[in-house]
Specification:
Layout lengths: L1 E11 L5 E5 L6 E4 L13 E9 L2 E7 L13 E2 L21 H4 L15 H6 L24 H8 L3 H31 L7 H29 L6 H11 L2 H4 L2 H35 L2 H8 L11 H14 L6 H11 L19 H9 L5 H6 L2 E2 L23 H8 L17 H6 L13
Antiparallel strand pairs: 1-2, 1-4, 2-3, 4-5, 6-7
Helix pairs in contact: 3-5, 4-5, 5-6, 5-8, 6-8, 8-9, 9-10, 9-11, 11-12
C-alpha cells in the first residue's frame, strides 16, 4: 500500500535519474527517474512523494512540486478603526411589579393564535438556511486483494530448508534476512553456541528475490484484473509503476498482463475524471456548494485542468452563498472548502457577514494567504511571506476495545491468563550446509 513521505534529492546522475533519501534521515533511499521529478527541481530540494514499500525496498510512485521556503512570522497586522470614539451611556430601569398580564397585548403588535403578542418570536428569530436536496453517492472504489497462487507455487518448488528464508524475503526483503541472522547469532553467543555463517544465507535470499518479486506482482496484477473497472486508482498506479521494474519487465510471464494494466489505467483515469466533473456540476446545480468545492480540490489525477466554464459557475455560486445575512457557521464552512479549490481566487463577496464571531475571524486570518480578497474584506492585512495553510483534519474517534468473556472473568477475579511467549523466526542451520551445493534455482542477478 502506498504512503506519502517527504524526500530530499541528493544528486543527479549522468543518465538523467536522481538519487533521493527521506528528508532528515538516512533511510529509506533510492533512485527515481527524471520523468517523475517536477521541472525546476534541484539537488537538496525537499519534495512531497508517494512511495510504496515492497520486497526490494521503497519505490517512488509520484512526486509533487517542491515546497517554497518561507519565513515563519505568524503575525497578522490588524488595521485600526479611524472612527472617533463615542462613549455609550445607559440607564437601567427600576425594578417593580410586572403588570404585563393586566395590560394585555399592545394594539400596534399583531397577536398570535394563542392571544399573546407576536413581537417576541419575530425579534428572536435567526436566519434560517434550507438544506438543498441530497445527491446519490457513487460506490466506493474497490481495493486490490492479492492472492497467493504464484507465491505458493514458488514456495512449493523450493527445498524445505529454503522456505524459511523465502518467507523472510517476502516479509521484508534481503534486509529482513540479514536482521534475522544477526538476531539469531546474538542469541547464540549469549547461549554459548556457535554463530551461523551469514554469507551463504544471504546469497540464497538474493537468488530467491527476483522470483518472489515476480510472483508477488503477478498475484497483485491478477487480483486487480478481476476488478479493473472498479479498482482504486492508487492501487492500479502502484501496479503499473511496479511493472516497469527491470526484474519484473524482463520476465515473459508479466509482459502481457503489464500491457493490460497500463491500458486499464488510461481508461480508469478518463472515467474517473469524467465522473469527477459530473459530480461537481451536479452538486453546483442543486446548490450543494460546499460539496462541489471539496470535490474540486480532490482531482483523480494530479495536473488535471479545471474547465473554465465550470470554474466560473462554481465561483459565482460560492459568491452568491456568502451573503451578508448568512450565519457565521455558513461562512466558515464555505471559506474552508473554497480556500483549497481551484476557484479560491475568484470568490469575491460584496460585503462581510453581519454575524462576525471569534471562530469566523480566526478562519479568515488562517486562510488569508490563500484568499487575500476575503481577508481585505474583514480588514486583515496578509503577510506576503506567511506560509500557506493546510486543510483541517477531522478528529479520529477511537473505538472501545471489546473483551472476551474469559478476559472479563479473569480481570474480575484479579487474575490474568498468562500469554504464550512469541515465537521467533529463526533461519535453519541446515541451510548453511546446502548453500555450498548446486542450487535448483536458476542463477539470476541478485538484487536488494
Amino acid at each position: 500500500m502506498s504512503r506519502r513521505i517527504e524526500i530530499e534529492l541528493t544528486s543527479k546522475r549522468e543518465d538523467g535519474s536522481w538519487t533521493w533519501r527521506a528528508a532528515g534521515a538516512r533511510e529509506p533511499k533510492g533512485i527515481v527517474v527524471d520523468s517523475l521529478v517536477p521541472a525546476g527541481a534541484a539537488v537538496k530540494d525537499v519534495l512531497r512523494a508517494e512511495v510504496e514499500t515492497d520486497l526490494d525496498g521503497t519505490r517512488v510512485l509520484t512526486i509533487q512540486a517542491p515546497k517554497q521556503k518561507t519565513a515563519r512570522t505568524g503575525l497578522l497586522e490588524i488595521l485600526p478603526n479611524e472612527k472617533p470614539f463615542e462613549p455609550v451611556t445607559q440607564q437601567l430601569r427600576k425594578k417593580g411589579p410586572r403588570d404585563d398580564k393586566k395590560r394585555g397585548p399592545r394594539r400596534d403588535r399583531p397577536a398570535n393564535k394563542d392571544g399573546e403578542s407576536g413581537d417576541r418570536p419575530q425579534r428572536n428569530r435567526r436566519p434560517h438556511f434550507d438544506a438543498p436536496p441530497e445527491l446519490p453517492q457513487r460506490p466506493k472504489a474497490k481495493r486490490v486483494r492479492a492472492g497467493r497462487a504464484h507465491i505458493d507455487a514458488v514456495l512449493a518448488a523450493l527445498p524445505e530448508a529454503h522456505r524459511t528464508i523465502a518467507e523472510k524475503v517476502l516479509s521484508g526483503g534481503v534486509p529482513a534476512v540479514r536482521a534475522a541472522i544477526e538476531e539469531q547469532n546474538k542469541n547464540a553467543v549469549a547461549a554459548g553456541q556457535e554463530k551461523v555463517p551469514a554469507e551463504g544465507l544471504v546469497q540464497i535470499a538474493e537468488q530467491l528475490l527476483p522470483k518472489l518479486r515476480v510472483a508477488e506482482w503477478l498475484d497483485k496484477a491478477e487480483g486487480a484484473q478481476k476488478i479493473l473497472t472498479d479498482i482504486d486508482l492508487r492501487d492500479l498506479r502502484a501496479i503499473v509503476v511496479a511493472s516497469n521494474d527491470p526484474v519484473i519487465a524482463r520476465d515473459e510471464s508479466t509482459r502481457k498482463l503489464a500491457e493490460a494494466m497500463k491500458a486499464g489505467l488510461v481508461v480508469r483515469q478518463e472515467t474517473e475524471t469524467r465522473n469527477w466533473l459530473d459530480d461537481i456540476q451536479a452538486a453546483t446545480n442543486v446548490g450543494r456548494v460546499v460539496r462541489a468545492l471539496k470535490l474540486s480540490s480532490q482531482p483523480p489525477k494530479a495536473g488535471v485542468p479545471f474547465p473554465p466554464a465550470l470554474s466560473a459557475q462554481l465561483a459565482t455560486a460560492t459568491t452568491a452563498a456568502l451573503t451578508i445575512d448568512a450565519p457565521a457557521e455558513r461562512w466558515i464552512a464555505l471559506l474552508e472548502a473554497a480556500a483549497f479549490s481551484p476557484v479560491h481566487g475568484k470568490v469575491t463577496p460584496v460585503a462581510p457577514s453581519s454575524q462576525v464571531s471569534e471562530e469566523l475571524t480566526k478562519t479568515v486570518m488562517r486562510l488569508g494567504p490563500l484568499m487575500p480578497q476575503i481577508a481585505a474584506l474583514y480588514g486583515v492585512v496578509v503577510d506576503p511571506k506567511a506560509p500557506a495553510p493546510r486543510p483541517l483534519r477531522q478528529p479520529r474517534t477511537e473505538k472501545p476495545v471489546r473483551k472476551k468473556a474469559s478476559q472479563v472473568n479473569a480481570d474480575a477475579a484479579g487474575k490474568r491468563q498468562p500469554k504464550p511467549a512469541p515465537k521467533k523466526d529463526t533461519v535453519p542451520a541446515a541451510v548453511v550446509e546446502t548453500s555450498s551445493e548446486p542450487s535448483d534455482i536458476s542463477p539470476e542477478v541478485p538484487a536488494d
